[in-house]
Amino acid sequence: MIDYADLSARIAALTHGETDEIALMATLACELHHADERFDWTGFYRVVAPELLKIGPYQGGHGCLVIPFSRGVCGAAARTRQTQLVPDVEAFAGHIACSSSTRSEIVVPVIGRAGRLIGVLDIDSDRPDAFTAADQAALERMMQDVFGDL
């Protein structure tokens, strides 16, 4: 299981002083993806227009290029600004199958200064029910720590 305290310390050291959102996303996608074998696809979707996400830095196979806020797990996280913890993607109404191997997913909104929605962190697993409330809490804290002042 992932040691979030160690991972958070490593990410803090790697990102200290950096303010470029894309550089931060690329660093986090890499560090997170290689930190846990449950993570099959790890990346960010960026807000690029009202109600529209586009793929950002990621690790893993191909991702969807564009996701409207009205569709899928990523869209739901962006629209509601609430983490989406999905134990079975087949049971999520409107799930977008960017990869046929995805079985479960967690999507965390990335919110900057003054409540600005920057994008979402999307982590997919090829295992059903791969993510826990502990993952959710740690990832939400991590996104706040890295992006909260941007």
Mean pLDDT, to the nearest integer, reads 96
Question: How many alpha or pi helices?
Answer: 4
Topology as a string of helices (H) and strands (E): HHEEEHEEEH
Strand order of the largest sheet: 3-2-1-6-5-4
Q: Which structural class do you get from the secondary structure elements?
A: alpha+beta
Secondary structure layout:
Layout: H1 4-15, H2 21-33, E1 41-49, E2 52-59, E3 66-68, H3 72-80, E4 84-86, E5 104-111, E6 117-125, H4 133-147
Antiparallel strand pairs: 1-2, 1-6, 2-3, 4-5, 5-6
Helix pairs in contact: 1-2, 1-4
What are the key terms here?
27% strand, 4 helices, 150 residues, alpha+beta, single chain, 6 strands, six-stranded antiparallel β-sheet
Describe the protein in words.
It contains 4 helices and 6 strands; from the N terminus they run H-H-E-E-E-H-E-E-E-H. It is α+β, with helices and mostly antiparallel strands and 150 residues long. It is globular.
Short description:
The chain has 150 residues and is of the alpha+beta class. 33% of the residues lie in helices and 27% in strands.
